[in-house]
Design brief:
- The structure is a homodimer.
- In chain A, strands 1-3-2 form a 3-stranded antiparallel β-sheet.
- Chain A folds into 2 domains: 3-83, Arc Repressor Mutant, subunit A (Orthogonal Bundle); 94-191.
- The first copy, chain A, is elongated, with a radius of gyration of 23 Å.
- Chain A has helices spanning 2-10, 17-25, 36-48, 72-83, 94-101, 108-139, 148-191, and strands at 15-16, 52-57, 65-70.
- In chain A, 66% of the residues lie in helices and 7% in strands.
- The first copy, chain A, is mainly α.
- The first copy, chain A, contains 7 helices and 3 strands.
- In chain A, strand 2 (52-57) and strand 3 (65-70) form a beta hairpin.
- At the A-B interface, helix 1, helix 4, helix 5, helix 6 and helix 7 of A face helix 1, helix 4, helix 5, helix 6 and helix 7 of B.
- The first copy, chain A, binds a DNA duplex through residues 1-3, 16-18, 34-38, 40-41, 44, 59, 61-66.
Chain lengths: 192, 192
DNA sequence: ATGACCATGTAATCCGTTACATGATTCG
DNA sequence: CGAATCATGTAACGGATTACATGGTCAT
């Protein structure tokens, strides 16, 4: 399972299940996410397997927390996962499937509106990523000189920016082709 | 569930479970896939729900097949899914998570080799997509004039090409940054 | 006191994969 | 006759989501 390794990786510093969830909500979510109801049982299982150990600690605000730390065995397991090279999981894009089927949903105008809507959704997400990047660069604009961990995180953020931007370009390419096709249809109608 | 709608969409023409699996293996797989052991029960459930109906038909070669057709109710269900606008499913990229954690796996050279390997894997997939696109364009190089269904399929293929290409560009950007950082580290060592 | 947030968990269900099981047809 | 391909399914398991359940602390 991947979540095991993701959590092991995130536990570079001690954290509770709640903390880890927060992290998913913030940065890490560009590439992974999980619900608390999956995180808690996974953490207890990893502890049972000796990859983590936990201790109860008072919270600054709120009830007591259970804070997890990696064991040596846990760190080794993580390193082995990383040594295995890139894990290429299957990708599923429901909206691309929808696009493939849209030729049955009416005329080209439906497809056009679909792509316009998709572009706006992607744009909103890109805006968020770009603000994140700008904030990160504000303190020091040369990531090459940042600490190792932050440098690596920045490369991950770049993946988000690059890939969403490419998808927006794709939307625009599609819209151009759709408009060309719409003109062609109109012309044919006029010729009648 | 999305697979329900994907199958409904793929059943524009009558097909058996086996046929649908073949289709996943070929074109549709750029955005979705499923195992036979998931397809068969799903089809029987969709029939129970009145979205499909099936009939046994002799095969040109091999044993009898169970061929499914959409019912009116099935077509309506599909259209409703499409009318709901783009479905933005969660994306999970294990390899981006790995990259984020790689700063613990030794020196920068490990990250560099990871990215080189990733780039080669993406390149191989891009090659496949580009061959597919070339074949499609061979007969008629202007998709704007293709039949509706093929035009839509082509837009989907473009999504694959565009987004994989962008990821390769990202890999190269990362490698450039990594090399810059490696030079910086060397210089620091030399200064000692 | 009540609502927002901190904090941890369980239960039911669903989605998806891997493994298992069976048998017909066709080609060499 | 044996291997490849066509064809359909079931069973067991694991991964992930949704819903349920509980209770502490803090600010207004």
């Amino acid at each position: 399972m991947s979540l095991d390794h993701i959590l092991l990786g995130m536990l570079r510093r001690p954290a509770s299940g709640y903390d880890l969830k927060q992290e998913f909500e913030q940065g890490v979510r560009h590439f992974w996410s999980a619900e608390l109801s999956q995180i808690y049982p996974t953490l207890t299982r990893l502890e049972r397997q000796g990859l983590l150990k936990s201790s109860r600690e008072p919270s600054a605000q709120g009830p007591e927390r259970r804070v997890y730390r990696r064991t040596d065995k846990g760190r080794k397991e993580l390193l082995q996962w990383l040594r295995g090279g890139p894990v290429m999981g299957k990708q599923r894009f429901a909206y691309v499937a929808q696009l493939a089927f849209l030729h049955e949903a009416g005329d080209l105008q439906a497809t056009r509106e679909f792509m316009e809507r998709l572009r706006e959704e992607l744009r909103a997400y890109l805006d968020f990523l770009e603000v994140t990047e700008k904030d990160a660069l504000a303190a020091n604009p040369r990531p090459e000189s940042w600490p190792e961990a932050e440098f690596h995180e920045y490369l991950c953020l770049r993946m988000g920016v690059t890939s969403i931007r490419a998808r927006i370009v794709w939307c625009e390419e599609c819209l151009t082709r759709i408009r060309a096709r719409q003109r062609k249809v109109k012309k044919r109608e006029a010729a009648k």
